[in-house]
Write a structure and sequence with these properties.
- The protein is 17% helix and 34% strand.
- It is of the alpha+beta class and 473 residues long.
- It has twelve helices and 29 strands.
- The protein is globular and about 80 Å long.
Length: 473
Amino acid sequence: MYNGYFRKAGVAAIAAGVVTMAAWRAPQASSILSASPTASVATVATTVPPAVAGASFAPVVERVMPAVVTIRVQKRASMVPTDQQIPEEFRRFFGDQLPPFQQMPRGQRVPRVQRGLGSGVIASPDGYILTNNHVVEGVDEVKVELPDSRTFTAKVIGTDPATDLAVVKIEAKNLPALVFGDSDAVKVGDVALAIGNPLNVGQTVTSGIISAKGGNSGGALVNAGGELIGINSQILSPSDGNIGLGFAIPSNMAKHVMDQLIAGGTVRRAKLGVRVQKITADLAASLGLSSSQGALISQVDAGSPAARAGIQQGDVITHYNGKAVSDNNQLRNAVASTKPGTTVPVQILRDGRAETLQATVGELASAKEKSDAPSAERGRGKYGMSVQPLTPDIAESAGVPRGTPGVIVSDVDPSGIAAESGLQEGDVIEKVNGTAVKTGEDLKSSLDRRDGKPSLLLVHRKDATIFLTLASR
């Protein structure tokens, strides 16, 4: 569940009515199955089948369904030791006369198997299948069941938690693959069909319309011509029920991620090095803009690709790499889909004048690289906390302006001095006794005062900056 409202679409089927996609318009109709032997999928233009123009989607569904598969996953786990499964207060009553299921050596672990279900889309005739990351993340076994009842053991080729996409591969040939449509061409009001196996009841089809721009986890969202325009991912569920509003990952984004996962198992994303915000009507009026189109630069990271290109705070990016920028989300996606190291034209508005700058984008650190960042103090040490350098990416995730000097608290010993002083995991220590700290060594040397007085820490926590004192030892 996401914030109490979003649920993975595998939990419940998308009921009829509405499907939401982010920043798209409807594709040209196309033929549905690809004959290409490679994993790369092309868009083929054709006409909408005559039956679709009428009341029935049966011809489209009949051709699309063979390319939508059921994915069954399994993860092996272990239960807590058996001597901990019955609380001690109950043992005082039962003694050694435990129920039959407890008649085993104390401390022995009982194996347990967790099973899950999702859907996938055959993306190439040679067995590459696109699904959701949350369907296959952390599992030990993946089985793919085709509509013709054949079952294959699949290999996870790569996953991308950032987009909730994953690619698995089965050893099969001449499979019916869906053709990718152009999700950028989708329009609000276009008809869409969600196809998948949401509740292990067999394949289902739900019709709806694209309701906004901006279930069946891993299943196909296709247009009236049978083209894949999205991968179903989540439903909106304010009360754990289904209100008929589902979300899908745009096919253009899905294909970009899929191609990278197939090529190298990971996804590389470009980085411009700016913070952007949506331009409201009031901001547009204050800035003297004729519309709210574009993305307003609220911050430029020092030494970033944007800074080197000459982009400044207060600039409005109106075009990126030759395409108009409608808002900050579109710019973020456009930058992320650019190959790192590419030089792109960036058109800005500055003081009412249009300028075109050339920016060579960098590479955004992956989640693994962020987690592998060197920790200044791996152990909790005498102060009972561990810290690590505050990189720009970590700063952004912590809600601190990029470029802020400091260290972030990664671990706190509940019985240590740091905890007693009120420090919490995720706190950003910016200064000690009025002096900025940039590394764990800076922090340690500042805290190791010899006069025995407590140190005064300036700490950023969530949306507030507070002072704390930390005793020295």
